[in-house]
Amino acid sequence: MTGALPGLAYAGPLRADPLAGLFGILQTTRPDADLDLIRRAYDVAAAWHHGQTRLSGDPYITHPLAVATILAGLGASDQVLCAALMHDTTACTPCTLSELNREFGTEITGLVAATAALDQIKYRDASTLAQAIATAKATDRQVLAIKVADRLHNMRTVQYLRPEKQLRKATEARDFFVPAARLLRLEMVEAELETLASTTLSRHRHAHTASGRLLTAMAALLPPATQARWREEWLGELHTLPARRRRVCFAAHTLIGIPRLAVTLRRPAPGNRQARP
Amino acid sequence: MKYAIKMTGPVQQVLRAMLADPAASRYGLEISKLAGLETGTLYPVMARLEAVGWVESRWEDPDLGVREGRPRRRYYQLTQDGAEQARLTLAEISRIREKRRATLSAVQPGTLGASL
Questions:
Q1: Does some domain include residue B113?
Q2: Is B110 among the domain residues?
Q3: What interface predicted TM-score (ipTM) does this complex get?
Q4: Would you say residue B114 lies in a domain?
Q5: What class has domain A20-205?
Q6: Is B47 within 8 Å of A256 when comparing Cβ atoms?
Q7: For A17-76, how does the pLDDT look when each residue is reduced to its tens digit (9 = 90+)?
Q8: What total number of domains does chain B contain?
Q9: Which of A203, A257, A275 sits opposite B65 (nearest CB)?
Q10: Residue B81 is part of which domain span?
């Protein structure tokens, strides 16, 4: 199963059923699935997320749908699929748990609540995770499976995040979610997460060298709205330089220009044309 | 003549380098090599050219970077208007320079002092 589901990007009136991909997978993994219930959960989530978009520009609902689709491939229950579809409604929209409870009952609502609550913990410590899983009830495992699928889809689309956030998500994926997938015996998910985390981390390896850190720190002299762009641009340039000595030279020369760049970027542009951040 | 941008030496070097292939998109380090400028000089020049609309910059397709295991690059390209303006301005500067040289060489040794 790959990242984007075909058909999701089109928002035109002739768009195919957005649930076609999910239902297609359920035909093989869960022929007995309650499609009406799942569609209802999708409709509720889509209504609450209406108008929200992801950083990729896709409608927000494509994310919970992708998470549910990952879980459908793993043969998850109707309750888990519904909870996955609605897992961000209470955190990202005015939707409340009592509203979900009225519509879907305590089991699904409990999963949604527990999934949202899991975000309160720090995804750092693999040892506490192991402990938690060993003593966990079935529902906790289901909740963890939703979070693992959530992170898998986030890692598939990680390139749209700011570099610092990419780094954090990838570190958490490596240290918390890969062991979590292993504990849940989700081998495919574990392998994909591991690959995505390690490629992301290797892409950012220069962010932590002396040159990278110095450039990142000095970019603070630039107007705030432009800092992220120049940081990322320079880290990208660092990557093209194979030798450490050349990276240090690049960093040194670029640093010399930062004060002038700061002045240039603060100067009002002629004809009010602004440099894009 | 008043130019949209102060035509300093580095600005001219960057524009000449980019005009060699006006449709090409290049990242900063490439331009710095082509123009023979250090990056500390280059980036402020690029920011100025971008501010006046002679140059546009954009991120490359992020998927490309992901596949190659590196951050995405920022690419610069002359705008159509920018290429036009840069060509005209550089030609104007060469003309002025040429004229000045011609005037200077036309002046007979010794006559300059007499005319003052």
A1: no
A2: no
A3: 0.83
A4: no
A5: mainly alpha
A6: no
A7: 999 999 999 999 999 999 999 999 999 999 999 999 999 899 999 999 999 999 999 999
A8: 1
A9: A203
A10: 9-101
Flag if A265 and B50 touch (Cβ within 8 Å): no
Ranges of CATH 1.10.3210.10 domains, chain A = 20-205
| Residue B39 maps to a domain | yes
All residues of chain A having their beta carbon less than 8 Å from the beta carbon of residue B69 are 199, 202-203
List the CATH number of the domain containing B80.
1.10.10.10
DSSP chain A: --SSPTTTT--STTPPPTTHHHHHHHHHH-TT--HHHHHHHHHHHHHHTTT-B-TTSSBTTHHHHHHHHHHHHTT--HHHHHHHHTTTHHHHSS--HHHHHHHHHHHHHHHHHHHHHHTTS-TT-HHHHHHHHHT--HHHHHHHHHHHHHHHHHHHTGGGS-HHHHHHHHHHIIIIIHHHHHHTT-HHHHHHHHHHHHHHHHHTGGGGSHHHHHHHHHGGGS-HHHHHHHHHHHHHHHHH--SHHHHHHHHHHHHHHHHHHHHHHHSPPGGGPPPP-
